[in-house]
Amino acid sequence: MSQDIFVVVEHLRGQVADISYLMLAAARELSKGIGGNVVAVLLGHKAEGLAGSLAADQVLYLDHPALAEFTSDAYQKALSGLIGEKQPRVVLLGSTTIGSDVAGGLSIQLGLPLASSCRSFSADGKFVSQICGGKIMAEGDLPSPTALVTMVPGGYKPEAGQSAQAPALTRLEVAGLDALRVSLAKYIEPEAGDVDISKEPLLIAVGRGIQQQDNIQLAEDLAQAMGGVVCGSRPVIDQGWLATSRLVGKSGKHVKPKVYLAMGISGAPEHAEAITDSDMIIAINTDPKAPIFEIAKYGTETDLFDLIDPLIEKVKAAKG
Amino acid sequence: MNIVVLMKLVPDLVEELSIDPSGTALDMSWLRLIINEFDDHASEEAILLKERGGGQVTVVAPEYDGVDEVLFTSAARGADRLIKIAGDFVTANNHALARASAAVIKELQPDLVLTGVQANNDLDGPVGPTLAECLGMPYVGYVSGVTVKDGKVTARKEYPGGLIAEMEVTLPAVLGIQAAEQPPRYVAVSKVRMVMKTATIEVRAAEALDPSGGPAVGRMFQPEAAAHAEMITGSPDEVADKLVSIFKEVGLL
Amino acid sequence: MPERVDFWGIPYTWGSPAIYVYTLMFLAAAILLVRFYLRAKLWWQVGRLEVRWDKLHIRLGRFIKYAIVQTKVLGQRYPGIMHVCIAWAFFVFLLGTALATIDSHFYKILVGYPFLLQKLVMDIFTLVFFVGAGLAVYRRFIQKPRRLTLSAGFTFSLVMIILIVLGGLLTESLRLAVEKPAWAWWSPIGWLVAKIWIATGASEATLTAWHLGVWIAHLLIVVATLVTLPVGTLLHVLTGPLNQFFSKLDRPTGRLARMPENAKGEPIYASTLRDLTWKQLMDGDACTECGRCQDACPAFAAGTPLSPKQLILGVRDALRADGRALLVKDSKAPLLVGEKIKDEALWSCTTCGACVRECPVLIEHVDAIVDMRRYLVIEGRMDAELQTALENFGRYGNSFGQSERMRARWTQPIQPAIKDARREPVEYLWFVGDYASYSPTLTDVTRMTAEVFQKIGLDFGILYDAERNAGNDVRRIGEEGLFEVLAEKNVAALSKSKYQKIVTTDPHSYNTLKNEYPKSSEVSETSELSALPVLHYAELLDQLICSGQLKFSKKLGLKVTYHDPCYLGRSNGVYDAPRRVIQATGCELVEMPRHGDRAFCCGAGGGRIWMAEGEVQERPSESRIREAVKLEGVNTLVVACPKDVTMFRDAVKTTGNEGRLEVKDLIELVHAAL
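Predict the joint structure of the above. Result:
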């Protein structure tokens, strides 16, 4: 039983995910409130190198061939062994395709309480989670004896979880990883789109508010006039109105353009987390309560259908 | 193939949400409960699997106001059995739901359990992984495609950036569905009404709901926006003008 | 004494010619009837039962109006005159032949002046026929309008009827050339042609021989025509009048048929020929391929896959191909919907009713389309956007996906507050409608309407958030179950309220409230229904202007044109009230070419406003705007429907006519003139 704060590091094909750094930053802040060391938990195979930039007091590295790439069964078994043995105060996992897959199972297996969608910790060590599309916040004490917490981005900057100095690394053996029920057959790359939106400086983004497939043309016209690229939120891609390569969001691309022009996008957390690193977000949405206005620099309630044509005209005029 | 779908209802975010007098939970009286969109996809995926490979689909849902219609709609799509778990689920968390459902689902001896990857009111993790552990089954989440071959299931798991991982899972297993392979099909009102006359909903009583594992909420509140955009008002022309000047400032024009 | 002679110039050498004539004619008629029966029986043996033989006196009236006088055919000038010349000529010939038969065997009536009169009339109509035939030849071979099917079958029919009449003219002229009677000028055309024969100098014997030859040819051509009639394009001579006789009587234009049920009480969805009624199958065979429906159809004009003509012919072709097989009891019926009739064609319809209005044989296209849409809906075969709209209707009672509590948000700035009709009795219950309540484009117009009502001192109220979409378009999309749900909710709210009349600003709501509420659950469609007292606001304003309660203080002096909304005009016959209101505001009204019951739909109806547009060449709304700007001096298009406001304001922008034409709701004129 320790006061340590464990952070389960997520990595994919040799890259540490931003969420891991974010959680390390969170852990650092949390430890100021409740004390304890920040311990990064790294699972993998021949992956010690990934620990180099983690801003942790210590890294516990579990090596096993079955942990080379993430699979839920192997990771959960490895983690349950470790947590069961070390009994830290808090375990932070990502509210992601990796962390969410195992957190619930660990909760039942180990009989430990789980708080999800945590965005930040208060100064006195309470978790603050967001639900209902970010419209409602729930705050509570970190449950005892060991609190499992999955985290969503937004509360901390990943840079705060990075360190130039490699932390001390302890290698641990993992047993019991046989008879695994989930195995990775292969990765399938996304269709190489004509554009990599994560590299574009100007993105014209459309969401549900574009209403119909035919209206996407309006966004294309504006993009062409301005020299930008069209992208979209999940509902638009799910309908097949834009290629998957244009998806901006939790399961899509994270983007950091100079200007992100969001049209008819409400700004739900899964989308918001992928655009918060933009230099400037401009939001066009007829709903004054849309969460996008909280992260945008400029906004307008004007109906995008009334705005687009004059905007295209004026952009063309300005370009001469 | 014996498939079970676990569905739950969640608050409709179109309506205004408010906190109840205790300050620790949502005020349910003004809420409209609607089907969790991801569970809708799970149900559609189950029907697709049944259409492709044969089998039976059972839909299980906890008791809420309006759940009957959701169950009948699933039957109208092609579900074979409908089970409602009686109990006070309105304030129950996912751990309680998982335990109560596991008891019912175990009896059904399914090959595959599908449920939505998440729901908008999850505070103690989504129900899928928790349920899987209660059932002693493996779990893969963020699944947007399922293929069944020779007693093994291949699930297409979504990663950021459009990357997909094909995971092979031994059955029985629980999958958290992100998206069905086609959007949930429309069910005409008259079809649902017709099904209401012929289909029956079996009711299983839950034992006392056990919410342990969920965090205690000390305070629930609506966030004040830390920041807010500078709003541009005026006629479309005026707004367009302002936007063009912003673009110029930033160096895009 | 001038009188008719039986079988003049026909030798009796092989017995009385009557034997041959009557035998041949009898055989021809028998073959015609048998062939016709084989065709016709498919209608009632394959199709569903529907009672259409009530109110025979009205049906007879329709027969006279549409089959004899042919008022709808005359709706277009050139082809109308052309067809009427041919058809009436043949009616006269038929009458004349009937008189000749009576004269032959029963009572010698064709003697003296009656005889001469008959000759004169027959001759004049021979000329009339040739005028018509000439117009027809010109139309088919020179003009070649796109809407016609210019196939060999039609040419064959035209040739046959020309030969028949020519045969009649020639035999008469040859006889006159031989007889040279004193009363010859009573057959002016015949006598003129006879002069030609006389001028050839041929002997009487020769002329009589020619006469015999022509007479035999004439007889054989008539026989051939009769025998081929049921399988050729002349079939419409029989099926057209039948179709008009059995046209729908029991419900007003604006009301759709209820969901049909089989013997077990299960609903029938129209996916195969068996699911259509016998009348709908007859529609297929009655179609003359004139294409007037296609010309009037906004969906066709826009370039969508729908042609009302091809749709009906699709039914006909399917029946021809599969009919026989379907006679075998319980045989599997091949799918009609999705095969001969494509999903996209069915979804392209705006249900405006222009096709129905135009059809000379009274085919009911819209009913068939909705019946088949009901099948598509139950199968879930629709585009994603329409599905979203229907799900929104189901969950929120409006297509915008907004909470019911937001429905009356537009009323916030209105002082004094509008009465809540659920709580206090009102004289007029204003059924506002979805678009007027939720669409940001319409908020100003809706508020203006409230202001106008208040200024003229109307005692009115609204249902606030108890109001739901009236369901007109939901019904036309084919979602009957959802319509019933919406109607139930509205009826519940209405029955709790106390009001004298309902007034609505939305023609779609108007149509369904007036014609289809609350009777979807009524047992008999033909029972006298106590209609909800519904007025469109144009009717209300018109009444108030007439009674003097509404007076205008200004004359606006604008030159305007007016677009008749489909659900106010064609579906419910309200054309004059809005025009009187426009004129009362001191505006000069100039009509567009397509006005009144020929108004061209804006393209939003039938659920189209919620569907993906697809590939369109020219939107119906844009076509209409272009029509309006052609009117000199007209700078305002007045409309009386919220969907028209939305569609036309958009179209003004997309056709680049901003500044040239302004779209105003009627209430805006009223407001300005108060």
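Chain A is about 25% helix and 25% strand.
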